[in-house]
Amino acid sequence: MDPTSDIFSDDLPPASLHTDDAVSDGACAPPQQAEPAAAAAAAAATPQPAAQAHDELDLAAALLAERQEWIKRMRLQFCVRKAFAGTSSMIHADGSLNQDYFRPPKGTALVSDTPQRAWTDTERRKLLHGIATLGIGRFREMAEQLLPEWSPNDLRVKTMRLMGRQNLQMYKGWRGDEAAVAAQFERNKRIGLRLGCWKNSVLVADDEGKVLEAILATEDASGSGSGSGTAVSVANGASAGEAGTDQENVDPVQASAVASASAAKRKR
């Protein structure tokens, strides 16, 4: 074999054949262009925006499922107590809540020592004005400025009824007029009736996360958003009997999972 044949081998970079002064003086040779096949392979290996968003959504769903399973295990371990026979029907065999357990028996009269104040149309309009100008979540300011005879928690419960959703975290910072509020109520009612999660005229969370998926799937179309700079969350294991409780304490794992899902959906 001719010992000089290696000079013309394809294994050597094209720069090795240059004999001009710049190259002979040690100057950098022009960069090589990647082979077409190699370039195509590199491009295929680069994560695409749609695929990346899908992966993030899958991760968020996995975190949510893991959290739900943990909740069910805790319920199975602590909810049913042998010393209290009534707790035997609190949960189902898989650890999911039995919503009927939290409903009072038919014909039960709810008695309160405190006379119930009537919620007037004037007060309703004031609350709607507060939602439109201050935004959902600023209930203390609404009480101080617009409805001093009602507590911030009272106004939170009234807002839940107006919006048709038990947990208002995804609405924190949301503003809208009466028509927009009514549209959100109808949207939440449709989701609740379809999934069997419409309890006491509000949409409640479910153990499987189907309510959250439906909310995210209709979020952009409904224009609800999640509020500027607001962490998105959903309360797990909330029963119909818990409507009206303070939902501000959010589980960080759940908030992270839902925020990731919402962000991934917006990328798509």
Description:
The protein is an all-alpha fold and 268 residues long. It has nine helices and two strands. It has helices at residues 21-24, 36-45, 49-78, 121-133, 139-145, 152-163, 178-195, 210-222, 252-267, and strands at residues 198-199, 202-203. A two-stranded antiparallel ribbon has the order 1-2. A hairpin with a 2-residue loop joins strand 1 (198-199) and strand 2. Helix 5 (139-145) crosses helix 6, helix 7 runs antiparallel to helix 8 (210-222) and helix 8 (210-222) crosses helix 9. The protein is flat and about 80 Å long. It starts with 20 loop residues before the first helix and ends with a helix.
> Mind telling me the C-alpha Rg?
30 Å
Q: Termini, distance in Å?
A: 60 Å
| Low-confidence segments | 3-12, 15-27, 226-255
Q: Outline, from the CA principal axes?
A: flat
What is the overall number of helices? 9
Mean pLDDT: 74
Helix content: 40-55%
Bin the strand percentage.
Answer: under 5%
Largest sheet: 2 strands, antiparallel
Order of helices and strands: HHHHHHHEEHH
